[in-house]
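INTERNAL AUDIT FORM
Audit reference: QA-55
Scope: verify that the stored structure record matches its stored sequence.
Auditor: D.O.
Record contents follow.
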Amino acid sequence: QVQLVESGGGLVQSGGSLRLSCAASGRTLSRYTMGWFRQEPRKERELVAARNWDGLSTYYADFVKGRFTLSRDNAKNTLYLQMNSLKPEDTGVYYCAARLGYSVSGVYDYWGQGTQVTVSS
C-alpha cells in the first residue's frame, strides 16, 4: 500500500505562486509514475502534470504549460508541483496520485486526500 499526503494548498491572489508537496509512505516510489490531478467545482477530475518513475517522460496539461513545474525527489519519496502565475481558473482541489507503471496515462492506483487551491481575482 502507498499513502499519499498533500500539503501546500491555500488562498492566493491571481498572479501569485504556490508549491504543493506530496509525501508518500508505505513503499518506495522509485518504480511509480506520479502525478497531480485537479478537480474544479462541477467538473471532472483532470490530469495536470505527471512524471514517470525514471523522469524521462513528463506530461503537462496545455492549460499549465509554462506556469507549473513538476519535480520529484525519489530519495525523499516526495512529489512537488510549483505553480506560478496562478489564475482564478486554477482554483480547485489538487490530488496527488501514483500508479505502478511507466506511462503517465492510465489508471492511477493510489490517491491522496486532496488539498484546496483557491486563486482570487
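Auditor finding: record pair retrieved intact. The chain is about 0% helix and 50% strand.
Action required: none
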